[in-house]
Automatic annotation (TrEMBL):
It is found in: Cytoplasm. This is Uncharacterized protein. Belongs to the ATG3 family. Its main location: cytoplasm. Residues 19-34 have a biased composition (Low complexity). It comes from Ichthyophthirius multifiliis.
C-alpha cells in the first residue's frame, strides 16, 4: 500500500518529507545531525466518509465527500483523482446519497459481500474470533484498496496473514 501511496504523491507533485541527505550541498554533507529530515507543508484534502447499509446487497456501502486545503468542496472529478484508476467509473461512481439527498461518490457494494465473506472464512480457518468492531475495520481496510491515500485508523493494525 505504501507504494500506491508514493505513486499518488509523486504523480500529484506533493512532498511529505524531504531527506536532506539527498538534497544537500557539499558544505552540509559533513553535518552529523541525526535528524536530517525536513518536513514540508503540503496541500491536503479532507474527506468525510459515511457508511450506510445497502438493503439490496446486504452489505455496508461507503460514501465520500471532501474539501480541499482551503475548505472548498471537492467536485466529483477531484474526488476521483484520489481513487485507484481501475475503479473509476465502474466500482466508484457518483450517486445520490440515500439519506442526505446529495450527489456523492460511492463505492458500489456489489463485491463487498464476497470479499468480507472470504475474510471471515479465513479467520474461522485460523481459529480467529472476530468481534463486530473488527469486521468494520476489515471493511475499512478493504476500502483502502480502492482509495489508498486515505488512512482511517493509524492506531489499529489487522494481521491479515492470521486471518
Amino acid at each position: 500500500m505504501n507504494e500506491q501511496y508514493n505513486e499518488v504523491v509523486e504523480k500529484n507533485g506533493f512532498l511529505t518529507m524531504s531527506d536532506n541527505k539527498n538534497n544537500t550541498d557539499n558544505n552540509n554533507q559533513n553535518n552529523n545531525n541525526d535528524n536530517n529530515d525536513e518536513f514540508i507543508a503540503i496541500p491536503c484534502r479532507t474527506y468525510d466518509i459515511s457508511i450506510t447499509y445497502d438493503e439490496y446487497y446486504h452489505t455496508p456501502r461507503m460514501w465520500l465527500s471532501g474539501t480541499n486545503e482551503d475548505g472548498k468542496p471537492l467536485n466529483t472529478q477531484q474526488i476521483l483523482e484520489d481513487i485507484m484508476s481501475e475503479y473509476q467509473g465502474e466500482t466508484v461512481t457518483p450517486e445520490e446519497h440515500p439519506h442526505l439527498g446529495l450527489k456523492q461518490v460511492t463505492i458500489h457494494p456489489c463485491k463487498h459481500s464476497q470479499v468480507l465473506k472470504a475474510f471471515i472464512e479465513k479467520a474461522k480457518e485460523n481459529k480467529v474470533n472476530l468481534k463486530p468492531n473488527q469486521c468494520l475495520l476489515i471493511f475499512l481496510k478493504f476500502m483502502s484498496s480502492v482509495m489508498p491515500t486515505i488512512e482511517y485508523d493509524a492506531t489499529t493494525d489487522l494481521l491479515f496473514d492470521q486471518i
